[in-house]
Each structure stands twice: as C-alpha cells, then as structure tokens.
Amino acid sequence: MALVLEGLKRLEYRGYDSAGVAVVHDGRVDIFKAAGKIAMLEREMGSTPATSQTAIDAGVLRTALTKRGHVFRSETDTEVLVHLVEELHTQGRPLVDAVAGALRQVEGTYGIAVVSSREPETIVAARRGSPLLVAIGSGENFVASDASAVLAHTRSVVYLDEGEIAEVRPADYRIMDLAAVEKEKTITQVDWDLATVERGGFAHFMLKEIMEQPESIRNTLRGRLLEEEGTVRLGGLNITDEDLLKVQRIVITACGTSWYSGLIGEYMMEELARIPTEVEYASEFRYRNPIVDERTLVVGISQSGETADTLAALREAKRRGARTLGLVNVVGSTIAREVDGGIYLHAGPEIGVASTKAFTSQIAALAVLTLKMGRLRALSILQGREVVRALGRLPDLVAQVLAKAPQVEQLAERLQRATNVLYLGRGYNFPVALEGALKLKEISYIHAEGYPAAEMKHGPIALIDDLMPVVFIAPKDAVHQKVVSNVEEVKARGGRVIAIVTEGDAALAKLADHRIEIPETLDLLTPALSVLPLQLLAYYIAVRRGCNVDQPRNLAKSVTVE
Ligand code: G6P
What we know:
This protein is α/β, with parallel strands linked by helices. 38% of the residues lie in helices and 21% in strands.
C-alpha cells in the first residue's frame, strides 16, 4: 500500500485535486477517496491493511469518461462504466473481457484501471485519450499514468496506445485491442533516474529546475551542433532535406509557456530561415478551419507531450496533409509518438507546475530547427557558424545569470506586496514579457500582464503610477533604443522600473530603479537569458507570499482534457 501512495505522491505534481485508492483483499474491494492532497487520502485510509497485492489509483479512474449515448444508472460516467463491467463480469466473463466488452459500448476519452475481488491478482487497464503505461518489475508489475510514479521500482515500461487494453498480473501482462487481438509491444527503458524526480537539496522543484538550466540546455544541444558546417544534426526529423526544402509555410501550435516559446520560434524562423511562420493556440487552431496543406510544416511544442489541445491540433493538421513535427520533452509521450518526427528536448523531468527549464530548452531546440531550415535556404555558412557558436556558449552564460539569484531575491522583497505588475519587451523579448507575467500570475497570484513595449501606449499606460512596478526586458538588441524610449515614457508617468539589461548598459543604468544584468549574446538567444531573472523573481515572490510554488492552486502540469 505504501507503494501505491508513494506512486500517487510522485504523480501529485500533475495537479490532481483529489485522489483515491481501491484495495483488493480478503475477497473484497475497499475504496478510499479524498479531495485535496494525497496527505488527506493517507489520513482517510488510516486503518487500512498495510498489505494488499493489488491496488489501483482511483485518480486514474476519475479521468473523464465523457457521457455519450448510454443509459445512466448512476451519477457519473465512470460509475456507468463500472456497472457495465460488473454486469459482464458477474455473467462469468474474465475481468479483461468484461472491461473490453464494456468499453466497446461507450464513447469518450478515458484512462482506466479496473480491479475485481473475483480476480484479486489482476489489474485491467485501458486508454483512450489519457496517458497510461504498464511498468515491468521483477515478480511485480504496475500500471501508471506517468513513469515517475514507478521509477523507484523499475525503468522498463510499455506505453499503451489509443484503444489498447492491458491485463496485468504480478508475473505477466498481455496487451490487446478492444477486439481482443493481441499486440506486440516494445519495452522502453526510461532514462530518467530517481534523483531527477526528487528535490535533491532544493526547497522546491521549481527552484531545482531553474538552477538545472545550464545542464538541461546542454542536454538539448548535445550531439546536435556542427560548428564546421555551421548547421545541426537532427536524427529524429524523419523528413528528408529535399522535403524540408519544399516547406513553404510553418505553423507552430502549442499551449501556455510552450506557446510563448513558439512565438520566439516564429521570430527566429522568419529572420534566419525566411519561412513565413505563424503561431497558433492549439485550442483555437483545432476548431477553426485551418489552412494547411502538404507544403505546410506544423510544429507542435509540448513539454509533457500529452496536452489534449496540442495533440488534437496536430491530428487535425495531419488529417489535412501537413507534415508534423513535435518539440517534446517526455520521451514516449503521445505527441512524440504521433508526429511524423521531432526534436526531443532532453531537459529531464519537469515536476514544478510552472514550466521553466522546458522553456529554455524549447528556445534552444527552436534555434536548432531554425538553423536546419535556414542552412537549407539563404543562411550562409558564416551566419550558421555564428549561431552554432553562440548556442555552444549559452549554457555557461545561463549559469552566470543564475548566479545572480541572491540579487533577484532582494528585489522580490520589494515587489512582494504589489497587486499588479506590467511586463514589457519588444522583438525577441516580447514573448519573454508574456512568459514573465505568466510565471508571476501562476505561482504568486499577483495580477500581471505582458505587453509589447510600444503597444503599451494603446492601453496599459493608463494604469501606470508609482504603485505599479513595470518590468522591462531590455537587453542590447536590434530594438534596444526603442525600448529605452518606452522606459522614459514610463518614468515620466512616475512608474517604478525594473529592467533586465545587458551588462554595461549605461542608458538604462540611469533610468531604471532596479536592474539585473545579463551577458551579451545573439539577439535570438537573449530570451534564454532574459527569462531567467523573471523565473527567479516569480519564485522568490511566491515563496515570500507563502504560496505553494510547485503546485499552484487550480493548475495542472499537463492538461490532458480539453
Ligand atoms: C499547463 C502547464 C503549463 C504548460 C502548459 C502546456 O498549463 O501548467 O506549464 O506550459 O500546460 O503544457 P505542455 O506540456 O504542452 O508544454
């Protein structure tokens, strides 16, 4: 039982608001449920027998069976399914047949695990829409929605595909489709180790992940940079150079922080590869009538590889004949398996709900993809080499910025009581303004808005007074002078300016009330540096305000429902 609770705790980061456990023992199934954290469930379970051979996470059961077309016998969709299974099972069918039979009668999305007192050693698991895997131990097997739940016990996992059902027992397992046709499945070795899903010496996963960024970016770039040729090597694109040359348009689709990195990707792709690029919220794209064809490359960006809207947007693009690529962190995730090809981020597990290291790895991966596309077109070898070299230096520069954490912590003390904060940036750093504001909102619950610095004149400028801190992301880049003028406009209205600037920027040193310096790099890579103080700022403010940094209220790490 301790094992199930431990697994549930490792999954808690994904943002469950309730959890439950079903225990099979002495010919009965006992069910415990509690709203809130796993600790509440533990309290609820107080006197439960400490050992049971078979138990399941009812949190998985709860994940959405949407109601369509079947007769209701109880209040929830899930209960309807359970009744269906029970009916077939008590008629004498083995549990796996009963579940398959029930699932054939229902529609909707689900990730379920079913146990029965009649087959105390069996778990039957099935997926459609929600991630699920079978983990293979020695003399014990597991069902989980995420490998981090079982890493302490095994690294060997089999990912279930859509419409598959698994019959899992301590010594063996079988995977079939719903028509009972057995499937040959490959066993994948998860390369994350346990330490990466634990906090180490850090107070929070978020801080650990912020501090890991020199390493996570290095891992994204490892083996991919070809300095001499001024280009990159990408083993997983699965598209020939000839076909990449036929791409006339790129659509990037994503949600949340991944959408912001997509915006940076758009700027990179248009500037260096000269390919018209658009960035679409996946939730919007999928329900419009998007114009894509076989000359459109649709790039989905997703840390988890499980975001329902991003997955659906990519499926829609595929249906219309587009080539699809995934920039995904979680190996073996649904998006990673469904796209034509992609670039894994290799940033390691991201547990903190607020995305940090995945964002900077996405920037690195987008730069790499831009180089690939650009070098097949107008980007010269010399320009290519310049970008490759700058990418190679990036991890060290990231470490330099992170060393300024104590300075950011001091700044947090001054900002912790703010009720509104405005983030402004231009060019490559406009998306960073959006991301900085999102980080603050997500974990400290302070209202924050990100805006293109010049666009401020068309609205937010009306909000500015001496109570409103304005964070400028203003490194020395092509639009720097323009941003300096925007800073002057804010100062003239009594605003308090915090500026992220390039080392030695004299103009802003005079104007800004507070500043954090970052080292110089190519314009396109400045976001990977300028975002770091903003991540730290949000973190330290949230800690000072006593917020739950790793599991902010109402948010989920991966949003597997639409
Ligand atoms: C959720 C998370 C965000 C993340 C977004 C997209 O909202 O809380 O941190 O940016 O989903 O997730 P993905 O896994 O697709 O990048």
